[in-house]
Amino acid sequence: MKENMSGCSVEESMRLLGGRWRLLLVSYLLEGPKRFNDLRRDVPGISQRMLTLDLRALENAGLVKRTVYPTSPVRVEYEVTEDGKRLEPVVKVMKEFGLWLKERDPVRVAND
Amino acid sequence: MKENMSGCSVEESMRLLGGRWRLLLVSYLLEGPKRFNDLRRDVPGISQRMLTLDLRALENAGLVKRTVYPTSPVRVEYEVTEDGKRLEPVVKVMKEFGLWLKERDPVRVAND
């Protein structure tokens, strides 16, 4: 039962974070607030639509906050919330695992 | 540049682990070797086809080993490899985050 509950918790996390880009977006936002176009530049592989959807999902989950500044043109910034900072250890282990993966398979990873 | 490389590493990890089920499967396999049908029971939401594909992806990445025992009927077991054990800290933080998420939003998570 306990294992089962823990299993469920992994599923819960992955349901929210399991997309290819969400944790990557969080990893950039943990550096500080960013505008939409900053994130597009940081993550060149993501489409504008996917970026919008992923940011909205993170916002709906209370992990990212979107602030609109009434400048002209309007400036929209995204930042991690206090809850979002709980993803710091998740991002950390994913980075470490990804680094190890790239060192193990430099060619395969590049050609993927 | 350093941030960028770390960012890439998160992407690398998520490219391999980002599906909804893969880390969950690894979390069950970290308990010990399992047969295909054990995993189907552990993860009732997954289709047979998806389970096959996810196990194969983990196998191709060298994280899971598939062993066929020449019994009758043939017995096929899956287990994590030494490399796969590197996912233990990843599973751990995902569990912790998922638990926190469920405690924070018991209703939302249940209705998702």
Automatic annotation (TrEMBL), chains A, B:
The keyword ATP-binding does not apply. It holds the Pfam family HxlR. Keywords: DNA-binding, Transcription, Transcription regulation. Residues 8-106 form the HTH hxlR-type domain. PROSITE patterns: HTH_HXLR. The keyword Aminoacyl-tRNA synthetase does not apply. The lineage of its organism: Bacteria, Pseudomonadati, Pseudomonadota, Betaproteobacteria, Burkholderiales. Gene3D superfamilies: Winged helix-like DNA-binding domain superfamily/Winged helix DNA-binding domain (1.10.10.10). One of its GO terms (molecular function) is DNA binding. InterPro entries: HTH_HxlR (IPR002577), WH-like_DNA-bd_sf (IPR036388), WH_DNA-bd_sf (IPR036390). This is Transcription regulator protein.
